[in-house]
Amino acid sequence: MKELTLKDITGIGEKTAKKLEKAGVTSPRQLALMTASELAALADIGEAHALAITEAARRELEKVLGIGVVKAKEHYEQLLRQRKLTTGCSGLDTILDGGLEPAAITEFVGVFGSGKSQLMHQLCVTVQLPEEQGGLRGRAFYLDTERGFSPKRLITIASRFGLNPDEVLDNVFSVYVVNSDHQVVLLDEVERLVSNEGVKLVVVDSFTSHFRKEYPGRDHLAERQQRLNRYLGQLMRIAVTYNAVVAVTNQVMSSPDPRDPQEKAVGGHIMGHGTTHRIWFWKRKGRKRLARVIDSPRLPEAEAWFEIQDGGLYDAEPE
Ligand SMILES: Nc1ncnc2c1ncn2[C@@H]1O[C@H](COP(=O)(O)OP(=O)(O)OP(=O)(O)O)[C@@H](O)[C@H]1O
Ligand SMILES: [Mg+2]
């Protein structure tokens, strides 16, 4: 289907289109998930007009974005048509019901060295595979908050999947994110790359580390959670608007409550509710790792074993 332009939407003429473009709104997809007040503030147009055009955009894009009222049968058929992104490990793909879901955020939680960043690198390669092999023939954008991004790992993993390492490097954008303000500002860049540059996978590794450092202790908890929540919402909107796969990592902290000594993910309930699927990684003997789906609205709490080698993540036998 041909991509709609702003002027295809009822209520948008030459003048309004110019105003919207000036405000960075270049496609009806962006309008479809905006509130009228948000648009009015952004683009210097009246709120009634903003309401009319956001509604019109929503109606036009109901089918494309999967936001219309449909019977469960149609919803189910849409899900069957959806292309998921392979992790490159059949065990992980199985617990994810085929791979990483588009238009959703999948969060990987685990202690240091559990394989989160290794998987993020692997996904930057598998997203480039043809669809018959579980890829999306797309590019990747790696937002790196910990200086952990390694083109060298991409080269090794590319060879394992039979892809040309030069081409693989050419298809991965990366940025070192210096603080949480930068992380939020970079949402514009995420949107640009996803809408114009063929990026189909967005990685944020790690999602929470800056927020955690900048808002230490209980005193700053409410503010941190509010900012995290807002950021998550904005990222989710981009995922849905452009049907992108979003993979984020998160760290584990020891529980502050001695009566409940379980490991906890940073960001608490905000992260738990704001992401679509949450997968935990645990370190086991040597290279072995255990993954388990926790807290997913659609996936059962299944487990998979993998190990980390030079070529990336591989399926492994249970311990
Ligand atoms: N080239 C390689 N060959 C084999 N194993 C590797 C290679 N590179 C890294 N590893 C292994 O991967 C593990 C590190 O995994 P990773 O960096 O994904 O951890 P992480 O979960 O992102 O941790 P953190 O929370 O510190 O970011 C280490 O155990 C390391 O030995
Ligand atoms: Mg890491």
Topology readout:
Blueprint: H1 14-22, H2 28-32, H3 36-43, H4 47-65, H5 72-81, H6 90-95, E1 104-110, H7 116-126, E2 139-144, H8 151-160, H9 165-170, E3 172-176, H10 180-185, H11 187-196, E4 199-205, H12 209-214, H13 221-242, E5 245-250, E6 252-254, E7 263-265, H14 268-274, E8 277-283, E9 288-294, E10 303-309, E11 312-315
Parallel strand pairs: 1-5, 1-8, 2-3, 2-4, 4-5
Antiparallel strand pairs: 6-7, 8-9, 9-10, 10-11
Helix pairs in contact: 3-4, 7-8, 11-13, 13-14
The structure holds adenosine-5'-triphosphate and magnesium ion (MG).
Adenosine-5'-triphosphate binds next to helix 7 and strand 10.
What features would you describe in this structure?
There is one protein chain. The chain is α/β, with parallel strands linked by helices. The chain folds into two domains: 6-65, Orthogonal Bundle (DNA polymerase, domain 1), CATH 1.10.150; 83-315, Rossmann fold, CATH 3.40.50. It has 14 helices and eleven strands. The strands form two sheets. A nine-stranded mixed beta sheet has the order 3-2-4-5-1-8-9-10-11, with helices on both faces. Helix 3 (36-43) crosses helix 4 (47-65), helix 7 (116-126) packs across helix 8 (151-160) and helix 11 runs parallel beside helix 13. The relative contact order is 0.14. The model has no long low-confidence stretch (mean pLDDT 93).
How many β-strand runs? 11
Contiguous low-pLDDT stretches (5 residues minimum) are none
Please summarize the sheet with the most strands.
9 strands, mixed
> How is the largest sheet built, in terms of strand order?
3-2-4-5-1-8-9-10-11
CATH top level of the largest domain is Alpha Beta
CATH superfamily caption of the largest domain = P-loop containing nucleotide triphosphate hydrolases
SS class: alpha/beta
Number of domains: 2
Output the number of helix runs.
14
For the termini, the CA-CA separation is: 49 Å
CATH second-level architecture of the largest domain: 3-Layer(aba) Sandwich
User: What is the helix content?
Assistant: 40-55%
Order of helices and strands: HHHHHHEHEHHEHHEHHEEEHEEEE
* Gyration radius, rounded: 20 Å
Please state the average pLDDT score: 93
DSSP strand content:
15-25%
